[in-house]
């Protein structure tokens, strides 16, 4: 199995603070991974490093076998626009552009603008009839769906979603998770950062961070686990010598309340 | 849609869908463009207006005959009508012109000698706006008397005056001695021509009267149409129409002096070109008193306006820069997002520079129109005349407004292109 993402003992250090502490992780193509943890656990810092928006203080990040630390800012921007689709908790839509224009912005920086394709992407998230509305005229759920359409428009190999349901009600949360489920079924690699156990439980695999240290890993899909291990995949690990850290070859399980009824999974 | 189309779609959306923000930048550019255009228009209009105003205070160029005596008859010849026309055409070819001709004769009033000038009242009135005339200008049978003469003789408007002409008073022997001095004096001012003619009798004058009196009071009776008061030597002359002077003297001849108020940009070149034409038998000279003061005042005004313009330009840069800086800082998240989507720093820089240029263009267009309105209003209020729109200056004003907006946006946009998307988009 080809590994899309490989983190090799990466750390992000701010002075005495280790936002991410010596983490090693491999993610194969097509996997749906959830990174969970409470606020301040280093989830977003980790996501920024994976998304080429930040660089690790130590260690190495590889995307499709390409070491990111060897790339300059322009090359990192190219990797970002060609390989990664970003979904944010606060949506970050350009306020003076309509929904379809917001989707086309991603096309503009990627390659060639195609309004028809952008409308199809909005149709895919159920917003074709809202395509010419400004973000201020859309509900939170609709804005997040526009954000997802924007992330999908360039067919990225990896979707990075930072608290994608953090600002949504239950109904819109379900719509967004259904969209992720569809993307996963189509073979898109998804990494979701969340502190919501329900959202995390929809993923095949979860890792938990606590103060930047990996403290647990669990699989919600045994078939996916077996396939991963059969392909030579190993559990995530940390070199941090902290009590409770998952430092060996064995995954340390952790518990979170399942919300199958809510997600429909 | 092409990427260029998308670029302009984003640009127009930023400008027209964020109207309140865009308005701030446009207003900043508008105020600067309006002020600068207004000042520039006045800077251009003022010399023209001042020149015309200054020229209302008399001639800046005089033309006299090189030889005032006819070689065959020994009498005064002057500049004939054809030469007056030719000289005037030469002056008119270099710019606008107003002129007046003067024929001077020595006459007697109550046996006392005075200088009489044959003029075209309309020409003289048009050339010398500063003359204060009590009553009316000369017409057939009516003369205009200088204030000094009126006071000396005790004349009032409507009084009768008997003017006698003696050919002997105007003989060549008495006038030729002062031919050379007449033109030399003229360079000091407008009074030069009259000074020279007053002294043409070769005798000292007091209150416009030659000191030697001959007891002969015969002559032609005229009515005093008006009394002129200039504060200068014009106050010692009697002005009559050319026809009356011809009738009084019984001789029709050319004029002694042509005074020009010439609008030529290079008066020196005009003087040289006339003097080089020796076959014309005339000599041209600048009235330096008028031209020098005119130039000095205009230079001072222009310097003042340019200094004010420079200050306004700096203030505009600060104003537009602050506004653009505010707009950029309000769009930090958007810039971070665009970078996260793969935009390069240069792409973001270009977007913001073009947006700034657009604010400058819109502000410049409106500001130029407003500035023209202001300049027009000022010129009407101060100079009592309107000014035409200068299209070159208008285009320059709009382009300058755009350039100023772009230059002012360099520091904030430079900061914007260095925004770290990870920092801006961090949610923790």
From TrEMBL, chain B:
Stored InterPro entries: ABC3_permease_C (IPR003838), Macrolide_Exporter_MacB (IPR050250)
Annotated keywords: Cell membrane, Membrane, Transmembrane, Transmembrane helix
Annotated membrane topology: Multi-pass membrane protein
Chain segments carrying region Disordered: 166-212
Transmembrane segments: 304-328, 361-383, 389-410
Coarse class of the protein's main subcellular location: membrane
Low complexity biased stretches: 167-203
Protein name as it appears in the record: FtsX-like permease family protein
């Amino acid at each position: 199995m080809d590994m899309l993402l490989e983190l090799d003992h990466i750390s992000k250090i701010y002075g005495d603070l280790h936002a991410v502490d010596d983490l090693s992780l491999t993610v194969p193509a097509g996997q749906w991974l959830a990174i969970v943890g409470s606020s301040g656990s280093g989830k977003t810092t980790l996501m920024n490093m994976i998304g080429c928006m930040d660089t690790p203080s130590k260690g190495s990040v590889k995307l499709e076998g390409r070491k990111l630390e060897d790339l300059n800012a322009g090359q990192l921007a190219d990797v970002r626009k060609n390989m990664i689709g970003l979904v944010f908790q606060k949506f970050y839509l350009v306020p003076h552009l309509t929904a379809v224009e917001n989707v086309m912005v991603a096309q503009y920086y990627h390659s060639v603008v195609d309004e028809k394709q952008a409308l199809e992407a909005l149709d895919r998230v159920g917003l074709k009839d809202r395509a010419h509305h400004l973000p201020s005229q859309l509900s939170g759920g609709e804005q997040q769906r526009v954000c997802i359409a924007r992330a999908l428009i360039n067919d990225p190999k990896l979707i990075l979603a930072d608290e994608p349901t953090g600002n949504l009600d239950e109904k819109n949360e379900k719509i967004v998770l259904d969209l992720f489920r569809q993307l996963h079924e189509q073979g898109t690699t998804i990494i979701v950062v969340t502190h919501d156990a329900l959202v995390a439980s929809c993923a095949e695999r979860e890792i938990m961070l606590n103060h930047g240290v990996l403290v647990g890993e669990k699989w919600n899909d045994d078939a996916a686990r077996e396939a991963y291990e059969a392909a030579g995949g190993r559990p995530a690990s940390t070199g941090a010598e902290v009590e409770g850290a998952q430092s060996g070859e064995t995954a340390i399980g952790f518990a979170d309340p399942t919300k199958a009824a809510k997600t429909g999974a | 849609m092409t990427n260029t189309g998308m670029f302009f779609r984003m640009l127009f959306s930023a400008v027209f869908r964020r109207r309140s923000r865009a308005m701030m930048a446009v207003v900043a550019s508008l105020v600067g463009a309006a002020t600068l255009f207004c000042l520039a228009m006045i800077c251009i209009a003022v010399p023209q207006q001042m020149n015309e105003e200054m020229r209302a205070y008399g001639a800046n160029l005089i033309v006299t005959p090189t030889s005032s005596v006819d070689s065959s008859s020994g009498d005064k010849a002057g500049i004939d009508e054809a030469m007056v026309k030719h000289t005037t055409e030469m002056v008119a070819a270099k710019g606008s012109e107003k002129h007046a001709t003067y024929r001077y004769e020595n006459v007697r009033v109550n046996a006392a000698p005075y200088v009489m000038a044959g003029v075209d009242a309309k020409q003289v009135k048009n050339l010398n706006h500063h003359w204060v005339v009590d009553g009316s200008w000369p017409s057939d049978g009516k003369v205009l008397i200088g204030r000094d003469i009126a006071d000396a003789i005790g004349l009032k408007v409507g009084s009768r005056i008997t003017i006698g002409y003696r050919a002997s008073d105007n003989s060549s022997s008495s006038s030729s001695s002062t031919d050379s001095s007449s033109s030399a004096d003229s360079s000091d001012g407008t009074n030069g021509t009259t000074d020279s003619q007053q002294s043409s009798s070769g005798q000292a004058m007091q209150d416009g009267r030659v000191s030697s009196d001959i007891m002969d009071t015969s002559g032609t009776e005229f009515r005093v149409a008006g009394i002129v008061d200039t504060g200068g030597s014009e106050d010692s002359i009697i002005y009559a129409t050319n026809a009356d002077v011809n009738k009084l003297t019984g001789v029709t001849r050319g004029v002694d002096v042509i005074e020009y108020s010439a609008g030529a940009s290079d008066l020196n070149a005009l003087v040289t070109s006339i003097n080089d034409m020796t076959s014309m038998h005339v000599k041209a000279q600048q009235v330096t008193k008028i031209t020098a003061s005119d130039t000095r005042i205009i230079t001072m005004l222009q310097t003042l306006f340019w200094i004010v313009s420079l200050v306004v330009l700096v203030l505009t840069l600060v104003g537009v820069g602050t506004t653009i800086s505010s707009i950029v800082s309000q769009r930090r998240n958007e810039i971070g997002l665009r970078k996260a989507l793969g935009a390069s720093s240069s792409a973001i820089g270009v977007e913001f520079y073009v947006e700034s240029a657009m604010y400058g263009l819109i502000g410049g267009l409106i500001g130029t129109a407003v500035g023209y309105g202001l300049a027009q209003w000022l010129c009407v209020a101060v100079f009592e005349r309107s000014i035409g729109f200068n299209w070159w200056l208008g285009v320059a004003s709009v382009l300058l407004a755009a350039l100023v907006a772009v230059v002012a946006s360099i520091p904030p946009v430079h900061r914007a292109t260095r925004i770290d998307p990870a920092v801006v988009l961090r949610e923790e």
